[in-house]
Amino acid sequence: MDLKYVQTTCPYCGTGCSLNLVVKDGKVVGTAPYHRSPVNEGKVCPKGTYAHEFINREDRLTKPLIKKDGQFVEATWDEAYDLIASKFKSYKPSELAVLSSARTSNEENYVLMKFARGVLKTTHIDHCARLCHASTVAGLAAAFGSGAMTNSIGDIAESKCVFIIGSNTFEQHPLIGRRVMQAKKNGAKLIYADPRFTATGKQADLYMQFVSGADVAIFNGLMGEIIRNGWEDKEFIAKRTNLETYEALKKTVLSDAYSLENVSKISRIPVDQLKTAAEWLGKAESSALLYSMGITQHTVGVDNVKSTANLQMVLGNIGIRGGGVNALRGQNNVQGACDMGALPVVFTGYQKVIDEAAHKKFADAWGFPDGICEPKNGYEVTVMINVLADNPGELKAMYIMGENPMLSDPDLNHAEHALKSLEFLVVQDIFLTETAQLADVVLPATCYAEKDGTQTSTERRVQMWRTAQAPPGEAKLDWVIISELAAKMGYAAQFPYQSAEDIFTEIAELTPSYHGMNYERLNKPEALHWPCPTTDHPGTPILHCEKRAHPHGLGIFHPLEWKPPAEVPDAEYPFVLTTGRCIWHWHTGSMTRRSEALANEVPTGWIEINPEDAAALGIKDKEMIKAITRRGEVEVPARVTPDIMKGEMFMPFHFAECAANKLTNNALDPGAKIPEFKACAVKVEKIQEA
User: Fold this and answer.
1) Which residue among 106, 235, 393, 585 has its CA within the 20 to 30 Å range from the CA of 562?
2) What pLDDT is attached to residue 634?
3) ∠ at Cα 500 (495, 503), nearest 5°?
4) 329 near 164, Cβ under 8 Å?
5) Which helix (H) or strand (E) holds 184?
6) Domains plus CATH for the chain?
7) Is the pLDDT assigned to residue 548 strictly greater than 60?
8) In angstroms, how far is the first alpha carbon of the chain from the final one?
9) What is the mean pLDDT of residues 84-96?
């Protein structure tokens, strides 16, 4: 018997925990702790514990599939490549769109970005960051010049006050929750604001329950109270921020509109709780602000994110240990996919496509004989879906790697109509997902256990994946598939890679924030945080220690007015619906629901209803009911619980049979183009017996 351990990084959330894969006779059979990681120190959550269970599932894709007469038939790789190449060559660049993946490695995202811009010449490339943290990138970049988590995960344990809003951290990012508990043990206060009394709320010293969509009002109210009491960091504001923007902010937050009484009416948080939160934040030596999609997934998502930056600059909590604006990324490599330029407006390292010098830099480095895409911005995935639905024929073909928009997009009936309007769809994945079922060609790819490469966690830490077993059947590495397809289309010379390390070397050459990284330096337990500009640079766990990334080096305040969600309750749809994760499942469930242990814990979804609302509706706990919005309806079991506030309802979004995103609203933030998953109007009805 051949038994070995292979150290790797978890494929689920953005925390970046390390673990060992247990390999027996060439196959992954289990996981074991890896104690040397500074991120998780040998601990993992339930998803990490069972991260091996989906790897060798019998329904893994093992051969290319081509749809003929509505049915998939197995094909050779050459047949699949020839069909794709001939189809793609028949379209104009503007008719082609590409979706990259937060589940795949940095190297694979980079190669697909290069393929999109260099082979297809299209400007239309995006990935699921658009659906989770696009507003983080835009909002924090506006405030600080850089759109990423400012501090390290370990740093949170040193905070004197932790403020969590828009994140059920203990379920979504349990090992970050561990650092919060370490801070509490060291004397820190924990403030938690959320419509649900979650596992995170149950550990809080102050829990503030509020109605979805009140975030800007809450932040403005807290800042007003802090400034009125003189708790702001005057020295930080004077030396490290743009004073003109601070004066404008002050005028807004001190206005009557954001008195604590008015904020209480908007949010339903009692005034005394708002006062306590402001005092704890204002008097703390350092406070760390943690948020996730509860902040970002709104039509005012960018405003919400700017508000987090406003508060932390008022308090002087930027560039210090135990402080910062800590955006917790949902998927394992959503930070890395953004870093690699899998976005419609940037190349790697956020170098703008429309910047003439940046465009020339990449065109020259890649050496495509016929050039690359135009120097203009492309469509975001949410815009792609709307264009497909509303302007038939403008977009005609799409290449999707490792994304499942048929469960992850809002208003799924609209998304399905859009994807079915494509003339040609290619999906590259490890399972026949709901999206892959709509494809004309399906390409079998590899999972994290079958590849070398890197992924970048929520704290900007770039870490290694290591091959533990061979791919199943004829499945291939994602970057190999893309490179071979590029060769079929006449661009073999531009994709000469023999390994993932070759690709990373090219990334580092072109990307200032990764320039000092290489596999030798990354092949250590602590790895490296970007920015890491030179090979002797230690990496940067904490951003903005001396100055912001703006050219003038100052933080910029943004005075903001509260706006309600795009859709609010009315007589017909009297409740607010919000969505989120549970600890046992992840994203669209394509991996966790194929894990027996996780699926047994939570086999299906539910809708949470406050007991007073349930009593008024005559609904009992566990009763199957119908949830209805203006976009669709689902049948789903009720979970009657006082943990959800009256007037609000909650559904997890992992479950195809009761898909929350059949109900959610496709209204978009005007800047980031992120949908409003976190607030829409809903009604529920008892199911009438036939």
Assistant:
1) 235
2) 96
3) 45
4) no
5) helix 174-185
6) 3-49 (2.20.25.90), 77-131+332-429+441-460+470-522 (3.40.50.740), 145-327 (3.40.228.10), 575-686 (2.40.40.20)
7) no
8) 59
9) 98
Q: What is the pLDDT of residues 35-59, one digit of tens each?
A: 999 999 999 999 999 999 999 999 9
**Residue closest to 292 by CA, chosen among 330, 331, 333, 322:** 330
Strand partners, 8: 19
| Residue, of 546 and 640, whose pLDDT is higher | 640
Model confidence over 281-306: pLDDT tens digits? 999 999 999 999 999 999 999 999 99
What per-residue confidence (pLDDT) applies to 547? Answer: 64
The CA distance from 417 to 158, in Å, is 49
Distance CA 101, CA 455 (A): 11
Q: Is the dihedral of CA 666, 670, 674, 678 positive or negative?
A: negative
Which of these ranges, 130-134, 332-336, 530-534, has the smallest mean pLDDT?
Answer: 130-134
390 neighbors 415 (Cβ within 8 angstroms): no
Let me know: does 557 contact 249? Beta carbons within 8 Å.
yes
Assessment of whether the complete model's pTM goes beyond 0.85: yes
Token match 């050219």: residue? 551
Residue 170: which region, alpha, beta or left (left: phi > 0; alpha: psi -120 to 50)?
Answer: alpha
Residues facing residue 165 across a β-bridge: 193
**Strand, coil or helix: 384:** helix
Strands 624-629 and 632-640: antiparallel
DSSP 117: I
Q: How far apart are CA 61 and CA 428, in angstroms?
A: 10
Output the pLDDT for position 318: 95
Instruction: Say which range, 5-19, 325-339, 367-381, 579-593, has the weakest mean pLDDT.
Output: 579-593
Query: Maximum Cα–Cα distance for the chain, whole Å?
Result: 74
pLDDT average, residue stretch 16-37: 96
Q: Give yes or no for a cis peptide into 531 (omega within 30° of 0).
A: yes
- Helix spans in 478-560 (H): 478-488, 500-510, 519-522
Residues 6+ positions from 434 with CB-CB distance below 8 Å: 404, 406, 407, 588, 656
Beta-ladder partners of 291: 327
**Dihedral angle of Cα 661, 298, 642, 201, to the nearest 10 degrees:** 120
CB-based contact 557:539 (threshold 8 Å): no
Q: Is the dihedral of CA 533, 538, 540, 546 positive or negative?
A: negative
Q: Is the pLDDT of residue 610 over 60?
A: yes
> Cα separation of 428 and 127, whole Å?
14
10 Å CB burial of residue 679 (0-12, 13-18, 19+) is: buried
Q: Are 456 and 464 in contact (CB under 8 A)?
A: no
Dist. CA 267–CA 301, nearest whole Å: 17
Interatomic CA distance for residues 382 and 410, integer angstroms = 9
**pLDDT grade for 690, boundaries at 50, 70 and 90:** low
Q: What percentage of residues in the chain have a pLDDT greater than 70?
A: 99
Say if residue 399's pLDDT is above 80.
yes
Q: What is the pLDDT of residues 112-149, one digit of tens each?
A: 999 999 999 999 999 988 888 889 999 999 999 988 99
Q: Are 269 and 165 in contact (CB under 8 A)?
A: no
* 55: its two tokens: 């790897």
**pLDDT at 410 > cutoff 90:** no
Measure the CA angle with vertex 213, ends 201 and 652; round to 5°. 55
Give 549's pLDDT tier (boundaries 50, 70, 90).
low
CA–CA gap between residue 426 and residue 443 (Å, rounded): 8
Question: What Rg, from alpha-carbon coordinates, does the chain have?
Answer: 24
CB contact at 8 A, 36 and 5 = no
- For residue 396 the two structure tokens come to 């005609």
CA 380, 386, 389, 392: dihedral to nearest 10 degrees? -60
